[in-house]
Amino acid sequence: MIVTVTLNATMDRTLEVERMRTSGVLRARLLRLIPSGKGVNVSVGLRALGTRSTATGFVGANELSAYRKFLRESGISCALISVAVRTRMNTTVLWSRPRPGEVHLREFGDALPSAALAKLKRTLRKLAGPRTVFVLGGSLPPGMSAGDFAGLLKAAGSRGSLVCVDSSGPGLTALLRSPVSLIAPNDDELGELTGRRVGTVDAIAAAGRTLLDRIATVLVTRGARGAAPAPSDARCIAQVPLPHTRAPTPVLSLYPIPPRRPPAQLPPPPPPPSPSSS
């Protein structure tokens, strides 16, 4: 079973204006408004690949019904926890004149109620097990400390689960003292974790190797900066072109041979639903 965890969910809104100006009133057309968050997005990606998952984490009470509907229609099990805060909204504005462009507005979100953390820990322990893989992704909500995040990682890692993390900011400092199987920092975050310069792929490989005695797998994403030749002791380096993006996303994968612990033996994904059942 794969369980994705979103700690700072967001409603993703995309607007389009015909011409961008730096002041004045702009009339915008709504292109989309969808429930989102990094863990939720991972579940959507997994479903597109034919793999089911369960999505948990926090979502504002007013938006819970929208998330449930979205996850149900996407074929994803919902174990989200309702909290008495507003789910943040991230807004992308697109325009075509005077030349095509876009701007992204990212809200910080609101602090969680004090009891929310304990509820999520109980949910993680309930879902944990030797056949469970947890994926915790995205930023931490305001007020959540590295210690709080470490407590969630410990709960997820109980009962033999594998724990994968793609987080930033305070979440990074919790990784090195937690039972984590895989991390996915970008190169800047890797530099922050290790205190090393990571301007080249060789430097990234050297920094990543310093973590492999504590974390079985390190995946480093490099954004639009491209991929350099892999050092001889890295397992692989790949450049993956993604549709509708301005640049491919290169990924450098480093891990010990053999890994510190074998991957969980997951059941095969269920067949996709037949057209008659939709």
Structure description:
With 278 residues, the chain is of the alpha/beta class. The protein is 24% helix and 29% strand. It contains seven helices and 13 strands. It has helices at 38-48, 64-74, 116-127, 146-156, 170-175, 187-194, 201-209; strands at 2-6, 10-19, 29-36, 54-60, 77-83, 88-97, 101-105, 133-137, 162-166, 182-183, 217-221, 236-240, 249-254. Strands 5-4-1-8-9-10-11-13-12 form a nine-stranded mixed beta sheet, with helices on both faces. A four-stranded mixed beta sheet has the order 3-2-6-7. A hairpin with an 8-residue loop joins β12 (236-240) and β13 (249-254). The radius of gyration is 20 Å and the shape is globular. The chain starts with a strand and ends in a 24-residue tail after the last strand. Residues 226-232 and 255-267 have low confidence and may be disordered.
Per-chain topology:
Layout: E1 2-6, E2 10-19, E3 29-36, H1 38-48, E4 54-60, H2 64-74, E5 77-83, E6 88-97, E7 101-105, H3 116-127, E8 133-137, H4 146-156, E9 162-166, H5 170-175, E10 182-183, H6 187-194, H7 201-209, E11 217-221, E12 236-240, E13 249-254
Parallel strand pairs: 1-4, 1-8, 2-6, 4-5, 8-9, 9-10, 10-11
Antiparallel strand pairs: 2-3, 6-7, 11-13, 12-13
Summarize the structure.
By secondary structure, the chain is an alpha/beta fold. It contains seven helices and 13 strands.
Q: What attributes does this structure have?
A:
278 residues; alpha/beta; 7 helices; 13 strands; globular
Fraction in beta strands:
25-35%
Gyration radius, in Å: 20 Å
Structural class, from helix and strand content?
Answer: alpha/beta
- Average residue-wise pLDDT: 84
